[in-house]
UniProtKB/TrEMBL annotation:
This is Oxygenase. It comes from Streptomyces lincolnensis. Signal peptide: none annotated. Keywords: Dioxygenase, Iron, Metal-binding, Oxidoreductase, Vitamin C. It comes from the Bacteria. Pfam families: 2OG-FeII_Oxy_3 (PF13640). Its cofactor is L-ascorbate. InterPro entries: HIF_prolyl_hydroxylases, Oxoglu/Fe-dep_dioxygenase_dom, Pro_4_hyd_alph, Pro_4_hyd_alph_FE2OG_OXY. GO terms for molecular function: dioxygenase activity; iron ion binding; L-ascorbic acid binding; oxidoreductase activity, acting on paired donors, with incorporation or reduction of molecular oxygen.
Length: 230
């Protein structure tokens, strides 16, 4: 007996109405980035930072939003050794990420995550920033350098990088973060990651049982920024 197959539906809808195009987010990650004594000195300075220079970290438009972000930030922290090392690898970063860092300068803060701290999914640069010409739109590359006591006195705090995801069907009603695939990167001491500021990413919650400041997850988080943007 021959069975008749109706192919009408397939011809009318070759692509599912909820189809999502996924594209892997490019990340450059370097372990043992600085010579060990240099990394240890940076950690010593971070762990001894004056408490009155640490302020609650803020989000877009310099707003304080504890539902979105919980951590401390030190805007005046100095790390010339790190900037010199970044400058030495910037050419390789450009090749991998497909951008030019010519005419950029670094801007960064020391970020401190302790027990219960986090930073929910966000972008360092959005299409809104570019359209409005706001300061964040000058960011060309994001970098995050991690340092902490070893063995790590905390758990969690992974950097979660979400892949790009766009609906193939124009009638798709918005895109949810849950539609995106992702990869987690451990905040290993003396490691650094580079990625495009438009990438969706987050800091997973940190558990630090002691609660001691020196046991925190420290990160020097910054950007290579264009100097010619208004």
């Amino acid at each position: 007996m021959t069975e008749t197959v109706d192919t009408t539906a397939a011809l009318e809808a070759p692509v599912g109405t909820h189809a999502i195009w996924q594209s892997s987010t490019k990340v450059c990650r370097v372990t043992d980035f600085l010579p060990a004594p240099t990394a240890d000195e940076l950690l010593r300075r971070a762990a001894s930072a004056a408490q009155d220079e640490l302020l609650p970290a803020r989000v877009r438009d310099n707003r304080l939003d504890t539902r979105m972000r919980s951590s401390l930030a030190h805007r005046g922290f100095s790390a010339p050794e790190l900037l010199t090392a970044i400058d030495a690898v910037v050419g390789q970063v450009e090749n991998v990420l497909g951008v030019s860092c010519s005419g950029t300068r670094p801007a960064f803060t020391l970020n401190v995550h302790n027990d219960g701290d986090f930073y929910r999914a966000h972008q360092d640069v959005s299409s809104h920033d570019v359209a409005k010409g706001v300061r964040a739109a000058k960011r060309v590359v994001t970098f995050v350098y991690y340092l902490h006591r070893t063995p790590a006195p905390f758990t969690g705090g992974d950097l979660r990088m979400y892949d790009s995801a766009l609906p193939l069907n124009a009638e798709h009603d918005g895109l949810r973060r849950e539609d995106c695939t992702y990869r987690d990167y451990a905040p290993d001491h003396n490691s650094v990651v580079f990625f495009l500021p438009s990438a969706l990413h987050e800091v997973r919650p940190v558990s630090c049982p002691s609660g001691h400041y020196a046991d925190s997850r420290f990160a020097i988080n910054g950007w290579l920024c264009r100097t010619d943007a208004s």
